[in-house]
Amino acid sequence: MANLSKPIPQKNAVLINLENGTFEITPNGIQLNPFDRTDFMTYQLAFKYDPKATAPLFESYLDKVLPDKNLQFILAEYLGYVFIHPSVLKLEKTLLLYRTGANGKSVFYEIVKSLLGFQPVNATNFKNRLMNSKVLVSRTNIGNVAYLAIGSYKHFD
Question: In whole angstroms, what is the distance from residue 104 CA to residue 71 CA?
Answer without folding.
Answer: 14
